[in-house]
Amino acid sequence: IVYFFSLSSFILRPGLPAAAATAAIMFWKFDLNNTSHIDQLLDREGVTLRELMEEEDVLQECKAQNRKLLLFLSKDHCMQELVTLITEEPPADLEEKTRFKFPNIACELLTSDVALINDKLGGDESLLEKLYHFLEQEPPLNPLLASFFSKTIGNLIARKTDQVISFLRKKHNFISLVLNHIDASAMMDLLLRLISCVEPAPLRMEVLNWLNEERLIQRLTELMHTGRDEERQSNASQTLCDIIRLSRDQANQLSEVTEPDPLLAVLESQENVAELLKNMFEGERTEASVVNGTQVLLTLLESRRSGLEGLMDLYSQGCERSYTVNSSILCAIEPHLKDFQQLLLNPPTRSAILTTVGVLEQPLGSARLHVARLVASLLQTCDLSICQEICRLNTMDLLLDLFFKYSWNNFLHLQVELCVASILNHSAHADLQNPGLQNHEERPATGTGSQAEEGTPGQNSTSDPLFQHCRLVQRILDAWEENDKNQAEGGRRRGNMGHLTRIANTVVQNLEKGLAHSQMNDLIKELPEDCRGRWESFVGETLRETNRRNTVDLVRKVSTHNLHSSSEDDDMESPFPNDLSIQQAFSDYQIQQMTANFVDQFGFNDEEFSEHDENINAAFDRIAEINFNIDADDHSANAAAFEACCKERIQQFDDCEEEEDIWDEKEINYATQIKSRSRYSTWMICLRKYNLLGSVTGAWEGSPGQKAPLVASDSSSSGGSDSEEDPGEHKTVEHFAKK
């Protein structure tokens, strides 16, 4: 009764907004504060588990620690039925959309993270045996039931660690059964939970040693053999990659762990990597085995510092920030570089595919793309022996051939660009430009055959395979001229021109201030005279103009030109002094930071919070650097043309004399709305045309007596504070510029 009258008085209160009253009525009508029917069912004699599972709020009540419900669910017959639901196939005659309804609810109840259910399930060995029996079925497992099983066991591993680990270690065939069903991705998740969810650290190390004794890594590596099922290969590869990342992350986070991770040690050992490569190339070389095996190698070669920041550092610093890679990994890969070379020459057969640019008779394929990724990662390690072997095999020559052949595959273009950048950036460190690059007498090559048989370039002391044998400069020039000719004939711009521009800029950057710029300039001087002249003309004119067009920093343009814009046909001088600064400016624009780092804002930096008075603009420290200065005394033709558009009367954004009731019903005049939008669009077109959009953020003229939201870029939301200005006077371009 009290609730009824309180709600009634609230609804009938004068001045209550209609929406608030409607919400209150809906709350009253639908009785959103009602109690659950679960308690009523539990009070009834003979209630069954299925009846409770039919209730929509059974999961909410379980997680809300409903005592009656938990006591009922933890009964022996209920727990047995719940486990049966998630481990046995439901009857096939049920409707498909409801067939797995109860197994799904049973899994959610068992994994609701309620202590009473966890204790019952983890402490009753008969229930654990019933769960374990699911693994003893013949493959393939039902993928949905496998996910229910994996989720339930995974929850027990995290919550009842001692009991479950002790139970599983008694089962000598546990790892064998899990790997027997590795084609189900849920089994992969179960293995990862064993590695990552066990606490504390000493118990986790016991589990890792147990898994190592069971030869988990070696068994997963065996599944990578070319003769295995592709689904098993894929899941085994993904499991190995996840184990590598998890082990490295936990080694960095858990400072108290002094004993090395045994699984990671096996993964990084030369013997295991060699076995992986043997399984990849033994027998018929399939694309699946090459791709899955290469993914593991790429993960082993990953930097401990991943993400975009690591990629940008790598691209800009070259060998100065090399990967932390175990030398045993590189020693195992080096003898098989010739096998990867053969994959570039003779990839697994693929049928023709139809693309948006026509039929591709011989697609690049995932195998060759992954080989390109592997070569890029190997070059980024800055290992001299690896770089020597790659150059001896002329791998870069093949990759450049593919770069220009598959002009629309940007995945490949990025990898080739990274390869070129790595060679140019660390050429001084690795001494790639001395005769030792082609002379393997100091360190015998693992490949067979003489250098002449391999087609290695001559023994010139200043020769470099990237410039001499691969003819990088000539290729850039020829490809650019061919693209210009194709576009002049009405064709489209080729898809690799963006990456080709970046490669050319990388060459120019290293020629100007790279670590080996003197050696590289000597190489340019050794080019044929006609080629050298074409290159100088290309760098001074074509590349410079391309970089100017690519520099789209509008703020810098406004600050530089002060609204002196010109038509598209005008010859605008570049605001940057040389090609290197153009490239750097464009890169800075792409990664510019206008506010403080998110981590600094979210991480509660003590200095920012303790010195508010002195550092009130810390969160927007970069915005103050943007220059929006506008010359108010501009009398150019564009300004005059814009002033002609300002002859209409524009009212200020004045406050209304009376506060408008937003709940009042109004008649909507669509004609007025359309007219207003049309006039607004006209203003925006004029502003864009004359580059004055930065001066005026909006212009609109409504019907007499209504607000006209004309707001300058630095004004407040209430424009009526400028009382000294006549709302009806004509506003010229000088007025807008000053605002």
UniProtKB/TrEMBL annotation:
Residues 434-465, 700-739 are annotated as: Disordered. Residues 728-739 have a biased composition (Basic and acidic residues). One of its GO terms (cellular component) is nucleus. Pfam families: SAPS. Residues 447-465 have a biased composition (Polar residues). It comes from the Eukaryota. Coiled coil: none annotated. One of its GO terms (molecular function) is protein phosphatase binding. Belongs to the SAPS family. This is Protein phosphatase 6, regulatory subunit 2a. It comes from Cyprinus carpio (Common carp). The lineage of its organism: Eukaryota, Metazoa, Chordata, Craniata, Vertebrata.
